Amino acid sequence: MSARVPIGRRIEWLAAEHPDRVAVHAIGVRAPEDVTWRELDGRANHCAAVLSEGGLPDDPTVVVCLPNGLDHVVATLAAWKLGATVVPLDTRLPPDEAGRLTAAIGPARFVGDPAHTPPCPVVRPVEWAQGWRAAAPPPAGAVPRSATATGGTTGSPRIILRRRGWLFDERDPVSARDRALGLDTGQVQLVTTPLFHSGFGALYQGLAFGHTVVLTPRFMPSLVADAIERYRVNVLRLVPTMMKMLLLPGVGLGAKDLSSVRALHHGTAPCPDGVKRAWLDLLGPERVFESYSSLEQLGFVSIRGDEWLAHPGSVGRPEPGAVVVVDDDGAQAGPGVVGRLFFRSPDGRGPQYLVAGERLATWRDGYFSVGDLGSLDADGYLYVRGRAQEVINVGGTNVYPAEIESVLLSAPSVADACVVPQPHDLLGSVPHALVVPAEGFSVAVLDSYCRDRLSLHKVPVSYEAVAALPRTGTGKLRRTTA
Predict the structure, then answer these.
(1) What is the pLDDT of residues 125-152, one digit of tens each?
(2) Residue 473's pLDDT is what?
(3) Distance between alpha carbon 286 and the CA centroid of its chain, in Å?
(4) Where a domain ends, among 261, 282, 303?
(5) How would you class 364 by CB atoms within 10 Å of its CB: exposed for 0-12, middle for 13-18, buried for 19 or more?
(6) Which of 269, 287, 293, 415 allows an S-S link to 283, with CB 3.0 to 4.6 Å?
(7) What is the DSSP code (8-state) at residue 113?
(8) CA atoms of 444 and 460, how far apart (whole Å)
(9) Same structural domain, 337 and 463
(10) 437 strand-pairing partners
């Protein structure tokens, strides 16, 4: 069995093996910039030297608060060359929130805008600029790692460590599970999701695999559609709102050559049935992969498009790990019964934290829940219904907003939608729909559309047209402000 090497060493090997091959195409609002493997490695070496000025502890932490772009890539690789734990932060966080997170992390290097006023040394991209050097400073000896910051459901800071360090098999970095998800070495990958969330793992795993990465500063439908064809993209990750926006007539995705795409990965939120089927038709079912997980990485569930067609609405079966559905009495629920989902990781361990916040609910030995609801069918396929705190009790019957939103989002006249509870004198609460209209929108037509597809108690009692919905950069709804 060959050794596992840090990602920094993989990048050095790729730079030596393919020095003049493009590693990153940075495209977007400005002129495209292409960076070769040799240039990328040298820039990261120089940045590592800047980060290490003044000395670093044996197990350093580097907070990277930069937008999608080459600076983010260089800073992250530089930190890993030093054996650091990288914590990416959203650049749109209010300064006070960014300050609280970095204060909770403790001693660290902060890479980004000093306006965030973090309580630690700040390094700005201008300090390493276009510098290049052949070799990186000696690493601190620690395994390169990463962690994800979240406020959690109570708002208390949590910094969740990625379970595995950024180590890869030096001969064949792609695992059997990766290959089952359409990944391989030397592919072209499009990254348009945020680098403080799902884009982070996709991009840096891709670089370790030797992918040529096409990186956009943010999601722009026409730019993404053009890039897939122009760069002959093999792999991309989208969230459902992006998938729906790419299908809008003005984008012209249907006229593009999509034959290069080998794997579309989507997740983070439920995908409307109509949107999912449209992409299955565009790419072919065997090229569309849906995944379900949590920041705590308790388990991983995925399903390929052809398997989804046999189990529509499912997110697949857990692999690795295990999942159980627990009812209100704390007992394991049977097939088809909706309850709280509890996951057990393959090693039976709970989440690993750089900074711990609120405790997760537990069930028996080694099962943890992040609060999601769902059910399992007789074959073990998982169906996710939403979060426990989002359930609307309509006259004693539980209604799941995610189910209604899936129908609303499948309507051609709806660009975006959210369902929230509305007080009702008789029933206690009823569903109320907030809708971002698209061409041809009509409340009467939309209500009829819902009545044809939902049970009567699930049909929204009222509809409200809004200009936009409060979504995070990852595509998730901020329901508390909706």
Answers:
(1) 999 988 999 988 887 778 999 999 875 4
(2) 59
(3) 21
(4) 282
(5) exposed
(6) 287
(7) -
(8) 12
(9) no
(10) 414
Look at residue 408 and tell me whether its pLDDT is greater than 60: yes
Q: What are the residues facing 316 on neighbouring strands?
A: 382
- CA-wise closest residue to 73 among 88, 60, 52: 88
In a domain, 417, yes or no: yes
Give the tokens for residue 6.
């840090």
pLDDT at 429 over 90: no
- Report if pTM > 0.85: no
CB 166 within 8 A of CB 146: yes
Mark whether 377 and 407 lie in a shared domain: no
For residue 98, what are the contacts with CB-CB under 8 A and spacing of at least 6? 65, 89, 116, 117, 118
CATH code, 349: 2.30.38.10
At residue 475, the pLDDT reads 61
The domain boundary, picked from 221, 255, 282, lies at 282
Q: Residue 46 and residue 68: Cα distance in Å, rounded?
A: 20
Question: Residue 199: beta bridge partners?
Answer: none
Tokens of 57: 């502890």
**CA 144 → CA 34, 122, 294, 374, distances in Å?**
26, 20, 21, 35
Q: What is the pLDDT of residues 276-312, one digit of tens each?
A: 999 999 999 999 999 998 888 888 899 999 999 999 9
Cα-Cα-Cα-Cα torsion 103, 108, 113, 116, nearest 10 degrees, comes to 0
d(CA 163, CA 145): 9
**Whole-angstrom distance, CA of residue 243 vs CA of residue 113:** 32
Instruction: For residue 287, tell me if it sits in a domain.
Output: no
Residue 153 pLDDT class (50, 70, 90 cuts): very low
Instruction: Write out the residue range of the structural domain in which residue 164 sits.
Output: 4-282
CA pair distance 32, 24, nearest whole angstrom: 10
Domains in the chain: how many in total?
Answer: 3
Residue 294 in tokens: 């949590």
Retrieve residue 74's tokens: 């260089």
What tokens does 395 get?
């006259």
